[in-house]
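Here is the promised in-class demo. Please do not try to memorize the tokens; focus on the logic of going from shape to residues.
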């Protein structure tokens, strides 16, 4: 056999971006197919980037040219600042946290490098030679990331934190000695004895989970950056980069159970997919629904008190000792089971119930149509309703007695029962979707109707008193009231939509009053969210007059509609679309005049315009809203031919 010298084949066909990411590049095949001298590859075209081949030019030019073209390295200070930008999201850091230079999270090879590159791409393109310049990208970006953390607290935690408080979480209902602690601040997963010392591996895992949570919070809150910035810069690239980084972080924590990992997964599921993300890129990674299911599995793992033998085709986990539980009331008050697990479990139940209703999937943490009545959680919710009824008897009805504290107590208690309404609505959809017996369908619908009647009888009078006193209540209370009224009545509209899709108009008689009330309340809530505002104050460092090396803090005030900073914009989009159907139906049946029809549609369109415009779903909803003339839309409403008579008699 002849000796043959095998030379290494050098392929000069990949662009700079594909070569750096080590993925296949189809630029050469696209050039051949198009018959052109140059054509961008599919990856660069989808990401709206320049498809360049600078590395090929440098390779052919020889080593001397490559070395001469190498840019000088950045100073150590600037490299550290670029690495620490996302580390500065949380305003309050633990004093014992490791420094970024020695943190184990920075030893994850290519994953960490890609994070730094993406972060640098997200920075503004204006780079000043002086670090003290007002447009210095590192300093401004650090300030913006801290501002994102503030937005997260003032918007999401104001609403969701109230749902986890002692007047809404059924496990803590009425316990004044327990603070409304948020699960992000609780213990980090199931731990053994408190006397055990954390190993270096546990420390590395803890740092990684904490970093991923900060990245996810930034990606979640960056939607509000355009409406709270005065620089006029285009933030679309920054929003896309933070979303991509947060999705990569989901793969880092999805197999590391902890309550902070669970919160990160939930937050990413609520993070809107930004404009500029192609359908292919959206399908390449984990989706929001996958994150929700992974978080549910995480909750079950964290709450397990016994570690029995577990195995699958890829791994076998042996049994382990049981984790001790609190046995006395004194120990229960300070145990992580009360302060962390119960709040986290109620949060997971909230997400699980919402997903089963809005995504048409079965619940993972509780029973569905059959068996939910005997579950401890929903029994507690009914008990909380009775406790509220008893405690509210001593209140003097009247807006003069409605303080801010009492209003928040009413809103939180009503939010607890609202989740029961969502649960029953999801059960009804399950009965109709899975083809259960007619008796089960009717029974599930009666539960929905009765839950609405109980909400209307127990909470509606007090909520109306809150509305009368609204101008004297805090702006956070207004935001909570708006979210409650919209979400509680949205479930009724979704039930009506389910009945319409299934062509079961014979079921509408049981929801006649509820449907009219829901349409009126949702429309009024949208108008309330547009006409009432929230004021946000942001502190920005600026150079002192005449002193180039000293900086002073100046406050900038932003006033935005409540609807614009609601942490659940997808619920607003769903409300707008369902209300558009109802308005078209009434207009076709001459129940509203042309002027009223135009006014109502103008309110709905204005609601969509004030939502974060970086979201793909919001942009799609706006295009759908104004896609066809009114007469064409009305001609397509064939499914509503029988609906008006059944709804309004």
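The designed amino acids, position by position:
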């Amino acid at each position: 056999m002849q000796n043959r010298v095998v030379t290494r084949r050098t392929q000069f066909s990949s662009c700079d971006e594909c070569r750096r990411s080590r993925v296949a590049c189809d630029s050469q095949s696209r050039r051949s197919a198009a018959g052109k001298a140059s054509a961008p590859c599919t990856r660069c075209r989808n990401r709206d980037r320049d498809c360049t081949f600078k590395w090929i030019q440098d390779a052919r030019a020889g080593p001397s040219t490559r070395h001469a073209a190498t840019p000088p390295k950045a100073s150590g200070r600037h490299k550290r600042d670029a690495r620490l930008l996302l580390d500065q999201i949380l305003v309050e850091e633990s004093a014992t946290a490791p420094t970024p230079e020695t943190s184990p999270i920075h030893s994850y090879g290519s994953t960490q490098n890609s994070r730094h590159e993406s972060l640098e791409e997200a920075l503004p393109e204006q780079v000043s030679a002086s670090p003290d310049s007002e447009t210095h990208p590192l300093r401004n970006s650090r300030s913006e990331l801290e501002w994102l953390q503030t937005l997260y607290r003032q918007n999401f935690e104001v609403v969701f934190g109230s749902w986890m408080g002692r007047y809404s979480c059924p496990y803590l209902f009425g316990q004044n000695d327990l603070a409304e602690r948020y699960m992000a601040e609780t213990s980090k997963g199931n731990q053994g004895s408190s006397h055990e010392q954390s190993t270096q591996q546990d420390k590395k895992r803890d740092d990684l989970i904490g970093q991923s949570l900060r990245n996810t919070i930034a990606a979640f809150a960056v939607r509000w950056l355009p409406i709270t910035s005065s620089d006029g810069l285009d933030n679309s690239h920054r929003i896309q980069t933070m979303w991509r980084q947060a999705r990569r972080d989901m793969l880092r924590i999805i197999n590391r159970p902890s309550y902070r990992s669970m919160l990160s997964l939930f937050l990413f599921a609520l993070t809107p997919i930004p404009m500029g993300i192609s359908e292919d890129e959206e399908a390449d990674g984990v989706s929001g629904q996958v994150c929700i299911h992974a978080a549910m599995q995480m909750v079950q793992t964290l709450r397990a008190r016994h570690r029995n033998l577990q195995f699958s085709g890829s791994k076998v986990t042996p049994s382990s000792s049981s984790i001790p539980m609190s046995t006395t009331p004194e120990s229960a008050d300070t145990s992580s089971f009360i302060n962390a697990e119960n709040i986290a479990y109620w949060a997971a139940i909230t997400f699980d119930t919402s997903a089963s209703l809005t995504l048409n999937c079965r619940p993972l943490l509780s029973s569905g149509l059959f068996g939910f009545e005997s579950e401890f959680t929903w029994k507690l919710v009914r008990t909380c309703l009775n406790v509220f009824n008893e405690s509210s008897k001593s209140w003097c009805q009247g807006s003069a007695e409605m303080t801010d504290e009492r209003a928040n107590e009413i809103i939180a208690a009503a939010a607890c029962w609202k989740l029961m309404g969502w649960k029953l609505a999801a059960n009804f959809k399950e009965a109709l979707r899975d083809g259960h017996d007619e008796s089960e369908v009717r029974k599930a619908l009666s539960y929905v109707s009765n839950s609405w009647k109980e909400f209307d009888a127990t909470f509606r009078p007090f909520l109306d008193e809150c509305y009368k006193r609204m101008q004297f209540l805090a702006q956070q209370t207004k935001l909570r009231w708006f979210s409650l009224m919209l979400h509680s009545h949205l479930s009724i509209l979704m039930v009506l939509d389910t009945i319409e899709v299934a062509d079961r108009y014979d079921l509408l008689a049981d929801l006649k009053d509820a449907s009219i009330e829901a349409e009126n309340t949702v429309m009024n809530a949208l108008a309330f969210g547009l006409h009432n505002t929230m004021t946000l104050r942001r502190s920005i460092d600026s150079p002192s007059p005449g002193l180039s090396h000293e900086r002073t803090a100046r406050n900038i005030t932003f006033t935005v509609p409540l609807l614009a900073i609601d942490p659940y914009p997808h619920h607003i989009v769903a409300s707008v679309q369902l209300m558009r159907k109802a308005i078209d139906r009434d207009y076709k049946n001459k129940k509203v005049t042309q002027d009223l029809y135009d006014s109502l549609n103008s309110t709905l369109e204005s609601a969509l315009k004030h939502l974060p415009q970086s979201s793909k779903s919001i942009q799609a909803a706006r295009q759908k809203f104004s896609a066809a003339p009114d007469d064409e839309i009305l001609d397509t409403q064939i499914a509503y031919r029988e609906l008006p008579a059944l709804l309004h008699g």
